[in-house]
Amino acid sequence: MIKDYTYDTELRCPHCGEISPYRMRTFINKSVDPDATAKLLDGSWFTFTCPHCGERQIAVYSCLYYDQDSRYIVALADSDEDEEQFLQWMSGVYQRDSLDGALNAMLGSCECRVVRTLSELQEKVLIKELGMDDKVIELCKVLVEQILVQEGLAPDIRAMFFNTDGDKWKLLSDIGGDDMAETDLPEGMYNDVREMLTGKTLPKSFKIGREWALTLLRSGMN
C-alpha cells in the first residue's frame, strides 16, 4: 500500500496573528481516501482553520495527486526547485527518497503532469474526472482566447481555466479584478480539436499548458 505522507509545521493566522500547528498532507492518494478528489476540488484539502479565531486560509505546498485507477499523477510544485525535481523524477533522472517504492514502480505506466498553482492542479484533476483530455482543453483555451482578444471581448487575459456547471463546459478567464469572465466551451470545438490530434505523435511533455499549446499551434500541429 502506498503511504500517505504527512509533515507537521506551524502557520500564523493572518487575522489574529496566533501561531498554530498544521499538518501538510503531501500525497493525495485517491485509492486511500475516496473523498480526496472532492476535498481537492473544493479546496478543503488545503484549508487551514485557525483554532483561536476561526479564520480560514488556503495553505498551498508541493504535493502529489495520485489516481491509481486512471494511472494519473499530477505534481504541484510551489517552487522552481521542486518543479525541477518533479520533472527529473518523472523523466527517470532523479529518485525522490520520500516516495514509496510502489509509486516509483507505477511511474512508468502513469500519465504525469507538473503544475505550479492550486487552480491548475484542480483543473487537471477535474478534466481527468470527466474523462476528458487536457491537451485538447489547452488547445481549445488558446483558440478561444484568440477569438476573445480579436473581438475585443477580453483584451487582457491573464489566465484561463476549464470548469463545468454540471451541464455545460465553461472557460473562466482572469481579466483582473475580482470577477472572472465566463465563456462556454462548445462541445463541437472540443471534438474537432480532439479529432485533429488523433493519430498525431506529440512531443512528450509533463507541462501541458498555454505555452505547450501555443508551441504546438505555431508548429502547424505536424
Structural summary, described in words:
By secondary structure, the chain is an alpha+beta fold. It has two domains: 6-117, no CATH class; 134-218, no CATH class. 32% of the residues lie in helices and 25% in strands. It contains seven helices and eleven strands. The protein has helices at 36-41, 80-90, 101-106, 118-129, 134-150, 187-197, 210-218, and strands spanning 6-12, 19-25, 27-29, 47-49, 56-58, 63-67, 72-76, 111-115, 159-164, 169-174, 180-184. A four-stranded mixed β-sheet has the order 3-6-7-8, with helices on both faces. The protein has a three-stranded antiparallel β-sheet with strand order 9-10-11. A hairpin with a 6-residue loop joins strand 1 (6-12) and strand 2. Helix 5 crosses helix 6 (187-197) and helix 5 packs across helix 7 (210-218). The longest helix is centred in the middle third of the chain and has 17 residues, at 134-150. It is globular and about 55 Å long. The N and C termini lie far apart (42 Å).
In short:
The protein contains 7 helices and 11 strands. The chain has helices at 36-41, 80-90, 101-106, 118-129, 134-150, 187-197, 210-218; strands at 6-12, 19-25, 27-29, 47-49, 56-58, 63-67, 72-76, 111-115, 159-164, 169-174, 180-184.
Termini separation = 42 Å
Query: What's the tally of helices?
Result: 7
Mean pLDDT: 90
Identify the strand order in the major beta sheet: 3-6-7-8
Elements, N to C (H/E) = EEEHEEEEHHEHHEEEHH
**Largest sheet, described in full?**
4 strands, mixed
Structural class: alpha+beta
Stretches with pLDDT under 50, minimum 5 residues: none
Q: What is the approximate shape? A: globular
Residue share in β-strands = 15-25%
Helix fraction bin: 25-40%
- Quickly count the domains: 2
Rg is 19 Å
Number of β-strand runs:
11
